[in-house]
Specification:
By secondary structure, the protein is mainly α. It has helices at about 5-20, 55-75, 80-110, 125-150, and strands spanning about 25-30, 35-40, 40-45, 55, 115-120. The strands form two sheets. The protein has a three-stranded antiparallel sheet with strand order 2-1-5, with helices on one face. Strands 3-4 form a two-stranded antiparallel ribbon.
Length: about 150
């Protein structure tokens, strides 16, 4: 299972997605010099117990779906075509996540009249999409090898 290269790719996708939960996605720097962290669930309140400035639950849900999909896909190694479909779906989710993060941060920066400083973590979905594509190629090679052995000679 994990000895296949595509399983390693999918495991790295899972790890990168989980890491996104622990690091801020962007910093918004207000005109008055206040710095707000945009994390996976939005912009939390500055003081304890206050209402969040922005709630971005769709981003958190999408990140959770990506992590869950990549983890489930690893264990579908006996069903290669289903594994390919799940991985393609995961790539679409990753591209959607990148767009959603960009639009949420841009809209909030416009509302707050703030400048945006994106973090390196925003590259993780792109890296994950590339690794997922490589996983699809590996799964396809496995499928081709199995089909070639099934032929009657």
């Amino acid at each position: 299972m994990i000895q296949r290269i595509q399983s390693v790719y999918l495991l790295v996708v899972f790890i990168l997605t989980v890491l996104m939960f622990f690091f801020p996605l962007a910093h918004l720097i207000g005109a008055d010099g206040n710095v707000f962290e945009f994390i996976y669930r939005g912009i939390p309140a500055q003081q304890e117990g206050g209402e969040a400035i922005l709630k971005a639950w769709p981003i958190a849900i999408l990140m959770g779906l990506i992590a869950l999909d990549s983890l489930v896909t690893i264990f579908l190694y006996k069903k290669r075509m289903l594994q390919i479909r799940f991985t393609v779906f995961n790539i679409l989710l990753m591209l959607g996540l990148m767009v959603l993060i960009y639009f949420n941060v841009s809209n909030q920066a416009e509302v707050m009249n703030a400048s945006v400083e994106y973090k390196l973590v925003n590259v993780f979905p792109l890296i994950s999409a590339i690794l997922s594509y490589l996983a699809i190629r590996g799964i396809g090679k496995d499928e081709a090898m199995i089909r070639s052995m099934d032929r009657i000679r």
